[in-house]
């Protein structure tokens, strides 16, 4: 079929959402016609992600997008060999480390499919009691050669989670995105503060929560402080998983220069390097990198990501930094990744 006819057909079809799926199907047919006479049946021997041409994966992403919007029948799902796979990698934390940005940026990779919502399967007893099939049912449709990733930052700090994940898949890859601990604690506080303000409630100042007024020491009972003691949580995880199964992402660098961090993750996940500078552009209004999927579709993260932090008393900042210092040293030692944290 001549290319011009294909394009004309596409334009007409794009007038309704249902038609859009058919456009994708048509592209598939055209693509198939362009293949050699005897192509290898991908269902017989699913190729590794490295062997799959980018063009094919992009077509597949288009189809998945339509399916997510509910525009596919069960028959189409079956025909295209789509599956809901348990995650092969999980972003387990850390809350306010940049978990959403990391998930969305990894989703730029044609071989990655994200679970959009935080599923809270392993940290929520009620969800966990629903069983593994419930969890699988929460996963997005994907092609068998793609990998599914979910993120639920509460996993990192919840006691029962490492054992539960280990029982599901002892060789799963675990991603942890961290930020300088004091900044992360302030970010955590800012999120709670905003929630209170939205409900017209008053809230304590950060300094009051973070310092124990009786001892004048750092208040280790305050959750935002405890969450930032990364090594304490990681040590619990290491009772189940070897350190090689974790990859630490620098959340501060993901803000300022995301591509190198994403390339390290691609390598950790054994994926070919496909996320490029083209996919990431700095948006001066937002003050953050935003995502470019293709010539027409780009997006920035929601406004709830990248809040203005309140001013914090510098002496309290110093006290916190001193408090976190020995824990940070231990964290570097265990993970083999060193940061320029104070
Ligand atoms: P702040 O709101 O403190 O700036 P999480 O998704 O784990 O809740 O993390 C939120 C943090 O992601 C934000 O914290 C923000 O700094 C960081 N972030 C990293 N890259 C971002 C991006 N491209 N757009 C918006 N926020 C980003």
From TrEMBL:
Keyword Nucleus appears in the UniProt entry: no
Sulfotransferase domain: residues covered: 87-331
Stated name of the protein: Sulfotransferase
Membrane protein topology class: Single-pass type II membrane protein
Reaction equations catalysed: alpha-D-glucosaminyl-[heparan sulfate](n) + 3'-phosphoadenylyl sulfate = 3-sulfo-alpha-D-glucosaminyl-[heparan sulfate](n) + adenosine 3',5'-bisphosphate + H(+)
GO cellular component, one term: Golgi membrane
Gene: LOC102208196
Family: Belongs to the sulfotransferase 1 family.
Enzyme class: transferase
Cellular location(s): Golgi apparatus membrane
